[in-house]
């Protein structure tokens, strides 16, 4: 089951090792491992709530990577040069790869990929709010690299130290690829900013549309985040939503200056006492509206994913038929 190859359905991944011990001994061993900042592995005993939290977060993360291919994918056929097209294709493929690692990591917790995908396709499972906004111009592609991937890295670096081993290990490679994504976006914008007035205006317009949505990517304020406290106790999350948002703002303001764009927040100001930038109010009503399925592109994104999944049914059928045939042959040869 934990494989990149197509395999026939197998229940083995669900049979997690039976570890001897009473419920309280198992729980105490788990808590001790967490307190010592150790890793929990798939075969280890873990509380159901820990398992459920991980499946929720990792599968939502996987869905975000997969749906996240769509806004930029729309520009592959319209990239302004062969070089930009090659870079964009590589980036979008990377996002697909991240989704696949993450589904695999979630499968180690005993939840099947079909179940996770059914959650996405029915609209029940969440994915990152940011991918429900349109990519109107080529500058949006650069801004997604710079700001969306930049925010994603800020959030994902601490996940490399997540207490669940398969998720933490997947994040190491994902973060390496995300830094290439961020740099290619920033570099594309630097080139546009050295171009014509129209190009500079296009970059500024994309920054204006994406800035606030990127700040919301980090999730609701800590005080309104139902999962944060327990997620931090379990070592799944290491840094809170608000702290990560602040780190992202502090890192991005100097980059915006080098680029020559204005961040669309009149309240953005260095606070000497806090040693951080102060910033304005995020529109949380708009955020929740988008998360609940009513953003500008939610319906289009889901419909595209469902169609791609249905169109691919024959490939899954063929791969399964082939795997079945191989297995039958192996059994016959062994007999
Ligand atoms: N959008 O208690 P909270 C990428 C939900 S893609 C939608 O703070 P938690 C890329 C949250 O799920 C990388 N929903 O939750 C790809 C929860 O709802 P449920 C994406 C959001 O889990 C292609 C509720 O609000 N990164 O890099 O402690 C191209 C309460 O929130 C959002 C990840 O997925 C949101 N923005 O913290 C380019 C990172 N924020 O489940 C780039 C992994 C919150 O109760 N995930 N919600 O129904 C995480 O780190 C955490 O899950 C979050 C939320 C920080 C997002």
What would you say this structure looks like, in words?
- Helix 2 (48-67) packs antiparallel against helix 4 and helix 6 (138-156) packs across helix 10 (241-259).
- Helices cover 64% and strands 2% of the residues.
- The longest helix has 29 residues, at 165-193.
- The chain has 335 residues and is an all-alpha fold.
- The site of benzoyl coenzyme A (BYC) has 29 residues, from helix 2, helix 6 and helix 9.
Summarize the topology:
Elements: H1 23-35, H2 48-67, H3 69-73, H4 82-107, H5 113-121, H6 138-156, H7 165-193, H8 197-216, H9 228-233, H10 241-259, E1 269-271, E2 276-278, H11 284-294, H12 298-311, H13 313-334
Antiparallel strand pairs: 1-2
Helix pairs in contact: 2-4, 4-7, 6-7, 6-8, 6-10
Bound molecules: benzoyl coenzyme A (BYC).
Residues 56-57, 60-61, 64-65, 68, 95, 126, 128-129, 144, 148-149, 152, 155, 216-220, 225-228, 231, 237, 241, 291 line the site of benzoyl coenzyme A.
